[in-house]
Specification:
The chain has one domain: Roll (Archaeosine Trna-guanine Transglycosylase, Chain: A, domain 4). 25% of the residues lie in helices and 37% in strands.
Length: 141
């Protein structure tokens, strides 16, 4: 775990239906349009509106990049999304990313962002979190 802690932690908004699938272990790949610049070990799952709470976090098992066609072929059975939504998401993209979802930790009680920091707002895509914020999340696990 020490090598993982030298990497980064991301807070990522996820539509509630996908966030719940991740927390239940039924979604094993999260699709995104852009790859992280930094090495990421954990992703904190923030269920976007109307839930607007942190549900838990997961270890990043791997990150794969390629064309939407490649990503669909490789991850369609574990992506938790139907093809029509996938196509719509990548409509104007030639590249995409699949984030492999490793060990998942669901919080006992979902928490609002204000529990981490009063000034923290939900990011559009993602934000790197300081380790102190992640430690606060671990208190709710």
């Amino acid at each position: 775990m020490a090598s993982n802690l030298s990497r980064h932690i991301v807070l990522m908004p996820v539509k509630p239906q996908f966030a719940h699938l991740i927390m239940k272990g039924k979604k094993k790949a999260e699709f995104r349009k852009v790859r992280f610049i930094k090495q990421v070990s954990y992703i904190v799952v923030y269920a976007s509106s109307p839930v607007q709470k942190i549900l838990g976090y997961y270890e990043v098992s791997h990150i794969d990049e390629g064309s939407p066609k490649y990503l669909w072929k490789r991850y369609r059975s574990v992506g938790g999304i139907i093809y029509k939504e996938f196509q719509s998401y990548y409509a104007n993209s030639t590249r995409g990313v699949a984030i492999g979802i490793g060990r998942v930790c669901t919080l006992k009680h979902a928490i609002p962002l204000t529990k981490l920091n009063d000034s923290l707002v939900a990011p559009q895509s993602f934000v790197y979190l300081p380790f102190k914020s992640f430690e606060r999340i671990l208190e709710y696990a």
